[in-house]
Amino acid sequence: MDQYKKIVLPGGAKVVTEEIPHVRSCTVGLWLNAGSRWESPKANGVSHFIEHLVFKGTKSRTAKKIAEEIDGVGGYLNAVTTKDYTCYYAKVPDKYVGLAIDIICDIVCRPLLEEGDIEKEKSVIAEEIAMYEDSPEEIVHDLLASTAWGRCALGLPTLGSLKTLKDFGRDSIVKYMSEHYVSESTVVSAAGNIRHENVVEEIIKRLDLSDMPMKSFVTPKWKPGAQAFRSKAIEQAHVCIGYEAFGRHHPDRFGLYILDVAVGGGLSSRLFQKLREDRGLVYSTYSYTALYDDTGAFTLYAGTAVENVSLVSDLIFGELHDICNHGLKWEEYNRGKEQLKNALALNLETTNSRMSRLGRLELAGEPLYTPDEISKLIDNVTYDDVSRIAVQILGQKPPVVAVVGPRKTKSFLIRRELNDTRPREETGSTQDSHRRFAWGAEPNDSPTSRKP
After folding, report:
1. Alpha helices in 181-329 (DSSP H)
2. Band of residue 420 on the pLDDT scale cut at 50, 70, 90
3. What CATH superfamily is the domain 227-427?
4. 121 vs 280: CA distance, rounded Å
5. What is the 3-state secondary structure (H, E, C) of 6-64?
6. Among 111, 113, 200, 215, which lies 20 to 30 A Cα-Cα from 297?
7. Are 7 and 177 in contact (CB under 8 A)?
8. Is 135 exposed, middle or buried (0-12, 13-18, 19+ CB in 10 A)?
9. What is the arrangement of strands in the sheet containing 296-305, beginning at the earlier edge strand?
C-alpha cells in the first residue's frame, strides 16, 4: 500500500492523506496560496487579517459555537499565515474527522465577514502588531527581508502595519478572498487514523470554493550588498546577515541544508561554538534557510552587546570566509547529514507534523517523498557538493545586512561603513516591521484552541 494517497478534485483542489492506523487521533489542514507575497503594499497584512476574521462566525455557526464544538471533543483548531500560504487546521480524536473537516470548510467557504467583526478584529491585530514591536529579534528579520527584496512581494511583513490595517474594508476583503480562496490553489491534507476515501467524501460534500484560476506571484529582485540600520530603544543589538539562495525545487537544496546545519543549526554549529562557547559574545545565534518557489535566502543571526557588533560581525564573516576557502570539516559534513535525517524522523512523530509536511509539499508542487527517500537524497549529497554550494551562495555577492539596536549602535558600525559604498537605509522607528511566521513556520502542536 502506498504511504500517501492523493486525488485531484473537479475544480483543481487536491486531497492528500497518510493513514496511520496505530494512533487514535487525526489532523486535517486546509492550505491556500494566500500569503503576504501575493499582497500589494497597500493591502499588506490582508491574508493574516482574513485568517483571524473567518473565525468570527459563519452562516451556520457563531464564534462561540465553533469553539464549543472543538472543545467538546477535546480537539483544537487554529490557523497560520506566512509569506507563502494560509493554513487552517484541526486536531481531533479520529472518530471526529468529519467534524474537523466540516468546521474548517465552513469557516473557509462560508464566513460572515460582518462589518462589526472587521472593526473589532482591527483592534486585536493592532495589539498583535504592538506585541511583535516589542520583539527586536523578530523585527530584524523583517528588516532584512524588506532591505533585500524591497517593499513588495517577499519583502512585505506578514502582519502588515497599522497604516494598512486601518484601510481594510469588507469589499477589499471579499475581493481578495475571491481571487485567492479558490479551488485551484487549495490543498487539504490529513494524517492519522483515517481512511482516504472517507476524507475525500467529506471534502467533496463540504468544500465550496470558486473555480477561478489561481493568481500568480511576482518574483522580487534581491539587492546584494544593501544595508539597513533601525534605531530602537533596547539594550542589545540584533544583527542579520542574508545571502540570496535558490528556490525550494533546486537540486542543491539538500546540500544547502547541510551547510546550514554546520554554520548555525545547533549547539555544535560554528556560530554557537565561536560566538557563545569560545568568546561569550552572544546568548542567541543561529542560521536558517527560507526557500520559496522561485527564490530563497540563507540568513545568519546574532544578538549581542552594542560594543561587540563589529567584533561579532567580523567573526561571522571570518567563519564564512574559511568555509568558502577550505570547506567544512569532514566531521561537520557527516554530522550535518545525520542531524538532518534524524531531525526529520523526530519531527514526524505527531499527526500534526505529518499533516503539515504533506500539505506544504503538495501546495508547493514538491514530490511526496517518504522519510526514507529523503534520507537517501541527503546521503547522496557529496562533500564537494556542499563546498561548491558554499562558494556559490556565500562567495559570489556581498550579503544584505540588517541591524536593529539602540541609536549608539551606529557608532560601532562606522568603521565598516567608511570603506563600504553599498546602498543602505536608515529608519528611526520600527512601526511597519513584523516577522511572525515570515520564514514559513509550520502549524504547531499547541493544545490551545484558536482564540475567537
Report:
1. 196-206, 253-264, 270-271, 309-326
2. very low
3. Metalloenzyme, LuxS/M16 peptidase-like (3.30.830.10)
4. 44
5. EEECCCCCEEEEEECCCCCEEEEEEEECCCHHHCCHHHCCHHHHHHHHHHHEECCCEHH
6. 215
7. no
8. middle
9. 282-291, 296-305, 236-245, 400-405, 227-231, 424-427
What is the per-residue pLDDT across 75-101, written as a single tens digit (0 to 9) for each? 999 999 999 999 999 999 999 999 999
Confidence (pTM): 0.91
Q: Is 97:194 a contact under the CB 8 Å cutoff?
A: yes
Q: How far apart, in whole angstroms, are the C-alpha atoms of residue 189 and residue 97? A: 12
- Bin 241: left if φ > 0, else alpha if -120 < ψ < 50, else beta: beta
Q: Chain-wide mean pLDDT for the chain? A: 91
| 3-state SS track over 193-232 | CCCHHHHHHHHHHHCCCECCCCCCCCCCCCCCCCEEEEEC
Kindly list the strands in the beta sheet with 14-19, ordered across the sheet, starting from the edge strand earlier in the chain. 4-8, 14-19, 186-192, 25-32, 86-93, 76-81
Among candidate residues 18, 19, 39, 51, the one labeled active-site is 51
**51 flagged as catalytic:** yes
- Look at residue 422 and tell me whether its pLDDT is greater than 60: no
Q: Residue 441 and residue 422: Cα distance in Å, rounded?
A: 31
Report how far apart the first and last C-alpha atoms of the chain are (Å, whole number): 41
> Contact 79/204 with Cβ under 8 angstroms?
no
pLDDT at position 338 over 90 = yes
Determine how many CB atoms are found less than 10 A away from the CB of residue 118: 16
pLDDT tens-place string over residues 30-47? 999 999 999 999 999 999
- In this prediction, residue 440 carries a pLDDT of 34
Within the chain, all domains assigned CATH 3.30.830.10 are found at 4-206, 227-427
Which one, of 436, 432, 430, 424, lies nearest residue 407 by Cα? 430
Three cell numbers, residue 262? 554546520
Q: What long-range pairs does 63-67 form, CB within 8 A, spacing at least 24?
A: 63/452, 64/452, 66/103, 66/107, 66/450, 66/452, 67/449, 67/450, 67/452
Is residue 54 within 8 Å of 47, Cβ to Cβ?
no
Kindly tell me the burial class for residue 172, based on how many C-beta atoms sit within 10 Å of its own C-beta (0-12, 13-18, 19 or more).
middle
Name the fold adopted by 4-206: Cytochrome Bc1 Complex; Chain A, domain 1 (3.30.830)
